[in-house]
Automatic annotation (TrEMBL):
This is Glycosyltransferase. Keywords: Transferase. Residues 209-365 form the Glycosyl transferase family domain. Coiled coil: none annotated. Residues 24-184 form the Glycosyltransferase subfamily 4-like N-terminal domain. The keyword NAD does not apply. It comes from the Bacteria. The keyword Transferase applies.
């Protein structure tokens, strides 16, 4: 009987102290692998770079011996024979423990290791579209991701679209990239009790049947055009269906926030939930939606799309970047640069029962192909391929 693979999994992006309970896409991805890789036959050791080097602050896994800045500095100045993971056994609390077979970095935090490294790189956005990345972090992210791409023996990404970006902007060898689609969490496939759902909706002042958007408010999410498209709907339709925007304000969101508040002051049926952290409540919001609208201009994957599919909500989304690949024909696609096109898609999902039924059925079928269990199995297949070389 062969022993299971021993994999060090970076979970820094899911550390409670760093996230305050609000996981972004990287955090959701890291946490999902931590939960589902054991079911695919892997012995997982969660490892985090400690904030400010203080190992006591690490809660989700074990602390790596150095903070990421110090480990990166050591990478640059120490001889190549010195590796961070020679001390990983100490981080695991057992100096005599067997070494790791492989380390999986779920973000750009990669340093020199004495075992093979697999890195997940979701996109090359700071380089491919610098106008959508904060200038304060752009150069740092570009440097870190380029370094990560060079250090990893193999790269995982979420879509075939992202392969093109990684090859073009980071110079990654296409033969060293594998696509592993992300998945919806199991709870999205189970309809919540109607009574619980209705209590959540009432708490937030919602009526079932609304248009729903989920995502951070930032330029590439294109929420400005979504708001404009909603306001262009006939008054009778706006009166019947709210626009519900779920997401925290991000970089360069001030003007959008002002427009949302202005619409509300004018009596428009627009609701912005910027402090939603309860995962059960988010599931309830999907369950109460009449349609999910995702107008993003750029996605390496687009996880909310799959969550809406699993929840049985008809979806309309941008026909750009990775989204057509993820939807695979299950969503009504539109031109995200055209307010009229977005308005037309919203009208169709609100008024055309046959189109709604088709989208719901196709979305649920697509969601069954995109689960975290399947993502974990495909990830393990990548590990095995790397170790067999």
């Amino acid at each position: 009987m062969t022993s299971p693979l021993r994999v060090g999994l970076s979970v820094t992006t899911a550390e409670p102290l760093l996230t305050a309970g609000r996981l972004d896409g990287l955090g959701v991805y890291s946490r999902a692998l931590l939960d589902h890789l054991p079911g695919a036959g892997v012995e997982v050791q969660p490892l985090s770079f400690p904030p400010h080097g203080d190992a006591r602050k690490v809660q989700l896994g074990r602390a790596l011996p150095l903070s990421f800045p110090l480990a990166t500095l050591g990478d640059l100045i120490l001889p190549r024979s010195v590796h961070l993971s020679t001390q990983v056994a100490l981080a695991r609390g057992n100096p005599g423990a067997a070494p790791l077979d492989l380390f999986h970095a779920t973000d750009y935090r990669i340093v020199r290791m004495d075992c093979p490294v697999v890195a997940t790189l979701h996109d090359a956005l700071p380089i491919s579209h610098p106008e959508w990345a904060s200038p304060k972090l752009r150069k740092l992210k570009n440097w870190l991701q380029a370094k990560a791409a060079r250090k990893a023996q193999h790269v995982i990404t979420g879509s075939r679209f992202s392969i093109r970006e990684l090859v073009e902007h980071f110079g990654v060898d296409e033969n060293n990239i594998s696509v592993v689609h992300h998945g919806a969490a199991p709870q999205f496939f189970e309809p919540p009790p109607v009574a619980e759902r209705d209590i959540t909706l009432e708490q937030h002042g919602l009526r079932a049947g609304y248009f729903l958007f989920v995502g951070t408010l930032q330029p590439r999410k294109n929420v400005e055009r979504l708001l404009a498209a909603y306001l262009a709907l006939p008054p009778v339709l706006r009166a019947a269906r709210q626009l519900v925007i779920v997401g925290q304000p991000g970089w360069r969101s001030e003007e959008l926030v002002s427009r949302i508040k202005d619409a509300r002051q004018r009596g428009e049926n627009v609701v912005w939930l910027d402090q939603l952290t309860d995962e059960r409540h988010l599931r309830h919001l999907y369950a109460g939606a009449g349609a999910f609208i995702f107008p993003s201009l750029h996605e390496g994957f687009g996880l909310p799309l799959v969550e809406a599919f699993a929840a049985g909500v008809p979806v309309a989304c941008s026909g750009t970047t990775s989204l057509p690949e993820v939807a695979n024909g299950a969503a009504l696609e539109f031109d995200p640069l055209s307010v009229d096109d977005i308005t037309a898609a919203m009208t169709t999902l609100a008024r055309d029962d046959a189109a709604r039924a088709r989208c719901i059925a196709a979305g649920q079928r697509r969601a069954l192909e995109l689960t975290w269990d399947e993502a974990a199995r495909r990830t393990v297949a990548v590990y095995q391929a790397v170790l067999s070389h």
